[in-house]
Amino acid sequence: MRGKTKLNISENIISEIFNRHNLGKVTSIKVMTGGNFNTVLKVKTSNNLYAIKIATKDDTQVLTYEHQLIKSEVYIYKLLEQVKGIKFPKIYGYNWENNYPYKYLIMEFIDGDMMSKVKLSQTDYDKVMFDLGKAMAEIHTIQNDSGFGYIQNGLKSTWKDAYFDMVKNIVEDGLSKQAKIPYLDKIKEVIEKNKYALDSVKTPFLIHFDLWFGNIIINDNKLYALIDCERAMFGDIMGEFISLDYLSAFDPDKNKKLIDGYNSISEIKVKFDKEELVRFYLMRIYLGLIAYVESYYRLSKLNPKFYGSRIFAKNVLHNAIKEIEKI
User: Fold this and answer.
1) Contact assessment for residue 98 and residue 47, using Cβ atoms and an 8 Å cutoff
2) Which residues of 183-204 are buried (b: 16+ CB within 10 A; e: fewer)?
3) CATH superfamily of the domain spanning 11-108
4) What is the DSSP string of 36-73?
5) Hey, what's the torsion of the CAs at 6, 8, 13, 19, to 10 degrees?
6) What is the pLDDT of residue 173?
7) How many angstroms separate the CA atoms of 147 and 202, rounded?
8) Does this model's pTM top 0.85?
9) Distance CA 89, CA 314 (A)
10) CB 3.0 to 4.6 Å from 299: which of 126, 236, 259, 306, for a disulfide?
11) Where are the domains of the chain?
12) Where are the beta strands (DSSP E) in the chain?
């Protein structure tokens, strides 16, 4: 069942877009599964293989942080060209202006396997986690002197201001859809009680903020590339660690290779002490709110995924609240 924000795009339109950028004659088109927001197609031409991401229609209701997402994603990918230790998709063309009916981003198609679909030996897994930690640290060398938060929503002078603004926006997005956000009063209480930890974030580091195993690409049992920067923001580096496991308490021993890889090149050594864990779970609360509210924008209530995704998000929120209260 197609999500609310997905589009049906004809082969003629795809050929027209590729002709606009002189990328060769389109010979095959395949709809990419996964994700419920943009329409993503794998396109083969006479000279290359590409992925094209086509934005929702302008009148489609989206979350506040999703406005002008193609534009901000292009900006992020251009910043990531500075990162040499890990591959990101190369950009071949884009449009976000109203002079053409579609807003889109054409990228290199990354050939490899999602980590979520690869069975690795313990040795290979440990090496991938170490290299992923290094890749995270390299991403975090990119900073924004203008402020914190999402480029598309306007940057804030402090991380606390940005975090509170992001939470306010996602809650309002939910309430506008009559979403009964679980634990909302408790979430507000927990955030208010622990807001002191946000003051320790002094530098707006670029964070990918969606490094789950589906966005980590493996080739020959090695870390090869990272994809899908839609949620990227400038903020707290703790937000980079939450997507590998959404539900469990963070275990530094279990994640030792990841932490060792990160600390091997980062000037800021992560310790996952009390303050960092508070920040970690505050970011997980924010992600849980996104996961809960976005169901109302992505999916029809006739879609079984609508209910499954809300249950999952409720568990994310419950566990994050429980863990932060233990600290």
Assistant:
1) no
2) bbeebeebbeebeebbeebeeb
3) Phosphorylase Kinase; domain 1 (3.30.200.20)
4) SSSEEEEEEESS-EEEEEEPPPTTS---GGGTTHHHHH
5) 50
6) 98
7) 10
8) yes
9) 33
10) 306
11) 11-108, 113-326
12) 26-31, 39-45, 49-54, 91-95, 104-108, 113-114, 205-207, 216-219, 222-226, 233-235
CB 216 within 8 A of CB 132: yes
The amino acid present at 81, given as its one-letter code, is: E
> So what CATH class is 113-326?
alpha beta
d(CA 260, CA 281): 21
Query: Are the beta carbons of 278 and 197 closer than 8 angstroms?
Result: yes
Q: Which structure tokens are listed for 304?
A: 């079984």
Q: Give the tens place of pLDDT for each residue, 203-216.
A: 999 999 999 999 99
Cα 256 from chain centroid? 23
Are the folds of 11-108 and 113-326 the same?
Answer: no
Q: Give the C-alpha separation, 73 to 318, whole Å.
A: 31
Specify the amino acid at residue 168. K
Q: How far apart are CA 103 and CA 112, in angstroms?
A: 27
Return the structure tokens found at 221.
């049992």
User: Residues 256-297: pLDDT tens digits?
Assistant: 999 999 999 999 999 999 999 999 999 999 999 999 999 999
- Rounded Cα distance between 37 and 35, Å, is 6
